[in-house]
């Protein structure tokens, strides 16, 4: 039995994920189950969402989970056991208006984890994606002109 350890991670900050994974592996030796359950979304017309915000959404919803998974994966492969879960969204399967960046990032994540599932079969590592329908998320009303405030977390 291990004492719980709180590790703060901004999943959209790709540069710190490798160090966080090392910290976890140094503390516990392995990860049996990795659940990727962080997300960021924004609502708005394609032409009104900046490329900068599109990239931030992609970092949080696609590059973050795959970077963390890739950091933990070698340990699972060497032990020939583990389970990786992606909590995604129904919007990873279908797109709806005013959610283009979010849906694109979720589609990309589904594609990556579908491929990973096939590749990990030989190592007895289970890869699952969960695509729930719409959920109630925390949201703050944005100040005019402040796109960061329009992000759902």
TrEMBL record:
Keyword Oxidoreductase on entry: yes
Keyword Oxidoreductase: yes
UniProt entry keywords in alphabetical sequence: NAD, NADP, Oxidoreductase, Signal
InterPro entries referenced in this protein's UniProt entry, alphabetically: NAD(P)-bd_dom_sf, Sc_DH/Rdtase_CS, SDR_fam, SDR_family_member_7C
Pfam assignment, any one: adh_short
PROSITE patterns per the UniProt record, alphabetical: ADH_SHORT
GO molecular function (one): oxidoreductase activity, acting on the CH-OH group of donors, NAD or NADP as acceptor
Any one of the GO BP annotations: intracellular calcium ion homeostasis
Domain of life, per lineage: Eukaryota
Coiled-coil segments on the chain, per record: none
Protein family membership: Belongs to the short-chain dehydrogenases/reductases (SDR) family.
Record protein name field: Dehydrogenase/reductase SDR family member 7C
Organism expressing this protein natively: Cepphus grylle
Gene name per UniProt: Dhrs7c
